[in-house]
Design a protein that fits this description.
Elements: E1 7-14, E2 17-23, E3 29-33, E4 55-58, H1 62-74, E5 78-83, H2 100-105, E6 109-113, H3 119-130, E7 134-137, H4 143-146, H5 151-157, E8 162-167, H6 182-188, H7 209-230, E9 237-242, H8 244-249, H9 254-261, E10 278-282, E11 288-292, H10 296-305, H11 320-325, H12 327-338, H13 343-352, E12 356-359, H14 363-367, H15 370-375, E13 378-383, E14 387-392, H16 416-422
Parallel strand pairs: 4-5, 4-7, 5-6, 7-8, 8-9
Antiparallel strand pairs: 1-2, 2-3, 10-11, 11-12, 13-14
Helix pairs in contact: 1-7
Length: 431
């Protein structure tokens, strides 16, 4: 929206979300946030969660390991980041000079700085691992062994330890030694081949998708291993977590489809080669909406809304398979309808008819959306530098044992002395 296109009309409050009413050129009113949606959540170091008592030593760097340990930290595990003197490289992912990735992925964790090239520091790490329940690392396969930290050695010293080994392509196989960057995995998993338009190059995701998916899988695997230990079915064990396999899993049945049909699913832009109608459409005011009519009932409603009910009886559109084969015609008909209506009006008409349609949101739209505010999908948390910062809430929501905000992302080595002393290690040995 161009500057000056909206003017303040009145103050309004929906629940706890302070909103401002604004009038647009067409006279319609919308409610938008002009300040933080809620009082910032204070960090409470005394709060507990369902994983209280679980000690995690996280030697990983960048996203996948931090995403994994964040899931455990948010639900009460004591996650101790072991960082080199230069810090986790994630700290250097900056926007306008601010380390906002670290503030998000580092929350609820403690930081210990160790230079593992020095013998005393390595001995301190080994001592910490004897007290741990979980150890996370993401070195290239074989590096841990070269450091004298082979899983067999660690499990001999601490038989109950769960060792999570993150790599790009797994600990075994011909690609094990390839660099473990998510970009390579997103390309080689088949994901990028399916993303983009058929007449253009494959498209990589603009964020660390492979790392984040692997992190969530890894957290699930870690809790599963801990539960197996709790039930007496195992003691410690090793989790071989590649970025490739979780990323490949999102393709679903494509291997079976290729085997049975001999066909490779090609790029289709925002359309689907599984269901139709499904696409992104441009409205008369230049804004976009996403629409999906993957069930017969919804597809029928959409054709009725756009004023072409006869399409429901046309053999080219009467079934989902037929619509997929003729999706260009389906999209042309639906696209022509959206092109006649401004965004908000088109959404209202479609939703009233029971069609499944939604707006394409930017982060600026999310910041002013009342559903995100009321659900607390984005929360304000206390921040020493900014007063408060928005970030995603703890996911998922547990009714009896929810996660908690216990501590902000730590400074480099902020808890070195504290953590070492808890383990009976003289902090002076690593000065």
């Amino acid at each position: 929206m161009p500057a000056g296109a909206w003017r303040d009309l009145a103050s309004h409050s929906i629940g706890t979300s302070p909103l401002v009413g604004e009038v647009g050129r067409g006279g319609a009113t919308r409610w938008v946030s002009r300040r933080p949606l809620m009082t910032p959540i204070p960090f409470d170091p005394l709060a507990t969660g369902p994983l209280e008592g679980i000690r995690v030593i996280d030697l990983s760097r960048l996203v996948a390991g931090n995403m994994l340990s964040l899931q455990l930290a948010d639900f009460g595990a004591d996650v101790v980041k072991i960082e080199p003197p230069q810090g986790d490289p994630l700290r250097e992912w900056r926007d306008d000079g601010h380390s906002l990735y670290w503030k998000t992925y580092g929350r609820n964790k403690r930081s210990v700085m160790l230079n593992l090239r020095e013998a005393a520091h390595m001995e301190a790490l080994k001592a910490l691992l004897k007290t741990a329940d979980v150890f996370i690392e993401n070195f290239r396969p074989g590096t841990l062994e070269e450091m004298g930290l082979a899983p067999e050695t660690l499990l001999e010293a601490n038989p109950d330890l769960v060792v999570v080994r993150i790599s790009g392509f797994g600990q075994t196989g011909p690609y094990a030694q390839y660099p473990g960057f998510g970009t390579l995995v997103e390309a080689m998993s088949g994901f990028a081949y399916r993303t983009g338009f058929p007449d253009r190059e494959p498209v990589l995701p603009p964020l660390a998708l492979a790392d984040m998916i692997a992190g969530v899988y890894g957290a699930n695997a870690t809790v599963t291993a801990l539960f197996a230990r709790f039930r007496g079915r195992a003691r410690g064990q090793v989790i071989d977590l590649s970025l490739l396999e979780p990323m490949y899993s999102v393709l679903g049945p494509e291997a079976a489809i290729y085997r049975v049909t001999g066909k490779v699913k090609e790029r289709s832009g925002s359309a689907s080669n599984t269901a139709s109608p499904r696409n992104v459409y441009r409205c008369s005011d230049g804004k976009y909406v996403a629409l999906s009519g993957s069930t017969p009932q919804v597809a029928r409603r959409i054709f009725e809304v756009i004023g072409q009910p006869e399409m429901n009886d046309d053999p080219r559109f009467a079934t989902n398979s037929a619509r997929v084969r003729h999706r260009d015609l389906v999209d042309a008909a639906i696209g022509a309808w959206f092109a006649r209506y401004p965004h908000d009006e088109a959404l209202a008409i479609m939703r009233e008819a029971g069609a499944t349609v939604g707006p394409i949101y930017s982060i600026a739209d999310i910041a002013t959306d009342p559903h995100f505010a009321e659900r607390g999908i984005v929360v304000e948390v206390e921040d020493a530098a900014f007063g408060s910062l928005p970030m995603h809430n703890i996911v998922p929501r547990l009714s009896a044992t929810p996660g908690t905000f216990r501590r902000p992302a730590p400074g480099l080595g902020e808890h070195t002395a504290e953590v070492l002393a808890e383990a009976g290690i003289d902090p002076a040995t690593v000065q």
